[in-house]
Amino acid sequence: MGGGMQREVLEWLGRSGVGVFAVHYVRHRHVITEEGAEGRSKRIRRIAHLAFVLGPTPFRHAETSPATVTAMSDVISIETLGAIATITIDRAPVNALTAEHWTELRDVIAMTADNHELRAVVVAGENQSFCAGADIRTLTEPHADMDEAEMLLVVADAANAIRQHRAPVIAAIDGPAHGGGLELALACDIRIASPRATFAAAGINMGLIASVSSLIDAIGDTRARRMLLTGYRITAADASLWGLVTDVDDAPLDAAMAVASAIATKPPLAVEATKYAVAQRPRLSPAEHSDLMGELFRFLATSDDHAEAIRAFLEKRRGNYGRR
């Protein structure tokens, strides 16, 4: 890599606020080549985006830390146990949320993304319900300060906070996941449902449209049309058959915590890079995604975590990863 090109990359990375390990990688690996102004700019931005997603802060082990519970409000709370955070929605009877609650949920999700000691997040609901979407009653009050379109945006913000989260997010679904609750579940990387869980794309029932792209991505065009056009509820059994949920379990929260615990034992940079690569696959051509995978592989191959994973494998012990 030429000196001028390297300086340009480092300047872009510096403006992006990325960590020193990403700068070290770009300095020592020739992943950017002279390929004209347009191609160079595109490649620089891809590397900078990757480095920004992976983040700067080393992980410090917290597996033996005591659980801490923080109530963000009377509706949204977060419990941290070791490297796993559990976000709980609690608004009886079915966890239908106001715009204020959706904003709180978005902020809590973003807060967990900023905590690089966390390796996985679980989202669950009380009241034998996951989330029944938006509280429509608040939109019909005489002095309502938000209309349906604005409510859709705050729901989308919360779902996008999950999609953009650096770590895997697991939904523990017990009861209804309807409307905005379905969108919230679809944003999660893994979905585990109880046998009594139900799923509905309820926008059509209110004369609206929602969850089109995310539902098609999850279960395909044909089955998504049935849910989107009818607003019918489907059972956990059907959701499992259609690929909408990963597993059906009588104790979905326990099952979700077990999956989160398994993820928390893996090298965190590799976990985050894998989530990023999966998310980028629909957005890139096969050739572009192959290039991205190569960049990710080279990045991870130079990490301390990779070296520690090899040592742990050979010594038949759990890895002690520093997220570096």
What descriptive keywords fit this protein?
2-enoyl-CoA Hydratase, Chain A, domain 1, disordered N terminus, 13 helices, three-stranded mixed sheet, 324 residues, alpha/beta, globular
Report on the structure:
The protein has 324 residues and is α/β, with parallel strands linked by helices. The protein has two domains: 3-58 and 268-315; 68-264, 2-enoyl-CoA Hydratase, Chain A, domain 1, CATH 3.90.226. Helix content is 49%, strand content 13%. The protein is built from 13 helices and ten strands. The strands form two sheets. Strands 1-2-3-4-5-7-10 form a seven-stranded mixed sheet, with helices on both faces. A three-stranded mixed sheet has the order 6-8-9. The protein starts with a helix and ends in a 9-residue tail after the last helix. The model is unreliable at 1-64 (pLDDT under 50).
CATH fourth-tier homologous superfamily of the largest domain: 2-enoyl-CoA Hydratase, Chain A, domain 1
Return residue spans where pLDDT drops below 50 for at least 5 consecutive residues.
1-64
Percent helix, as a range, is 40-55%
CATH topology of the largest domain: 2-enoyl-CoA Hydratase, Chain A, domain 1
Provide the spatial order of strands within the biggest beta sheet. 1-2-3-4-5-7-10
Based on Cα principal axes, name the global outline.
Answer: globular
Tell me how many strands there are. 10
Write down the Rg: 21 Å
